[in-house]
């Protein structure tokens, strides 16, 4: 059975944001040329104690493999923007490094982690300890409001907000790379492909076969990201975010 990929807090009614279906702001026509300046996104990757127990000695290699696959998806041509994900810090929680309280409530877990990661960041972007986004991998079965099918959660459009630029991923094998890419997509302001603004932008395009589909399904190798995802990240970056 397909599992829900995210219970993302949908806070996308921000002032001035172009949402075609509302009729409020006129949307500019799709750009023919995308920004080609690569954006480098520095990641803090955190694994909880259960991850350490489950993966043992292979944990770091496993996490770097998952993140390398997620990074490859952000280099895919269908995104229309050059985004380079870099793991700059990797923290394994345990006896010497206490982490945020672990809970099956996905929304609360995200809040706990966002609050906790603030204390690890260094505002100076030249510092080796600085990161742009934090991502937690947990073996905890995450639950949404009604089911425990949630595989991850993130807020939308938070990459420039150090207090909320974070995501959580329930580790479920190598498909965690897909979940990580999906949640980082939300951090870059992408909506689910089934949302009303996306239905208009995607047209007849199948919404079930891209990274921002709300449930995990077979990906379309040639078109990893939907037209809607490409449009939203382009507008987000063009508005000065993520620089």
UniProtKB/TrEMBL annotation:
GO molecular function: metal ion binding; metalloendopeptidase activity
One Gene Ontology cellular component annotation held by this UniProt entry: extracellular matrix
GO BP terms: extracellular matrix organization; proteolysis
Record's protein name: ATS4 metalloproteinase
Residue stretches in coiled coil: none
Catalytic site: 183
PROSITE patterns for the chain: ADAM_MEPRO (PS50215)
Every Peptidase M12B domain range: 39-243
Lineage: Eukaryota, Metazoa, Chordata, Craniata, Vertebrata
Keywords: Disulfide bond, Extracellular matrix, Glycoprotein, Hydrolase, Metal-binding, Metalloprotease, Protease, Secreted, Zinc
Region (Disordered): 1-30
Subcellular location field: Secreted, Extracellular space, Extracellular matrix
Keyword Protein transport: no
